Amino acid sequence: MSTTKQRTPGDLTVALWAMNMGLAPASAEAFIETAKTEMRAARARQADIMVMPEYVCESWLTFAPAGLAETAEIAWMAEVAQAILPELAREAARLDMLLVAGTVPVAVDQGYRNRAWIFTPEGQVLAQDKLSLTPDERDPEAWTLVPGDEVTLITWRGRRLAVVICLDIEQPALGARLQGLDIDLILNPSDTGRLSGHSRVFSCAKARAVELFCAVAPVGGVGPVPVQGERGNVSGAAIYLPCEAAFGHTGILAEQPAADRTEGAGRCLIARVPLRALHAARKAGGEVWLGAWSAESLRLNEPPICPN
């Protein structure tokens, strides 16, 4: 029988680490120490959840073996992750914090998947694979991955959470699939090399907050990875809510503007998310929100083209 103390569901404080991808750690140990420092600082500000960016592991390439081919990077990062992630999981448990440790490649039977590992302080280890891959993730001359095929729904401290990775937040079909599941908070690690990519991800994250009447928290890495042929990263962090008068009208709880450079370890956006009020409003109905709505019964009417 579980002895875990039951808590009354309440608000949660979320920390989004828009990490400096140009951090250039000298070793796995150096990265671990930097990550732990950021986790401790976030916890000191009452963070219950911390989210790192998609492909946080790309920053590790600064201590990769000399001459590592781009086609070999995925396998190398997957191997290094096996040493780094357990250390971060232990720190999350010590701090009583849920950690979404960015994403890393993971070997599966079909190849490699881009996976977000979720570590709860109670010791649970959960995973969410990216479902829709970018061209850069399907490039036989560089990174080649395979998509995931399921969505992990997490109940933690009385709240329903989901992790949606980068491009997946742009898929309306996924948003429709999540309707009616009573999700309170979506955590959205991303990796975007241009302002256009950042704009797509964050705009769609805001749309999902409206559609699903939940909080959505996107975050990405910032700055170029200092490897040959610098790989730029343009992003920031935000926490979006439904656009309701009760939540400040604009749908923006907190926002860190997009940037292509940053200093130190990067910036951490931390905010208390009003999940109790949000959950109650979702149950009661918003200003015009009708709840889960399906278009399956709609007929398509396409009149014939009039001749010239």
TrEMBL record:
Domain of life: Bacteria
Record keywords, A-Z: Hydrolase
SUPFAM superfamilies named in the record: Carbon-nitrogen hydrolase
GO molecular function, one term: hydrolase activity
Pfam families (alphabetical): CN_hydrolase
Residue ranges annotated for the CN hydrolase domain, each copy included: 12-275
Name of the protein in its database record: Predicted amidohydrolase
Species of origin: Arboricoccus pini
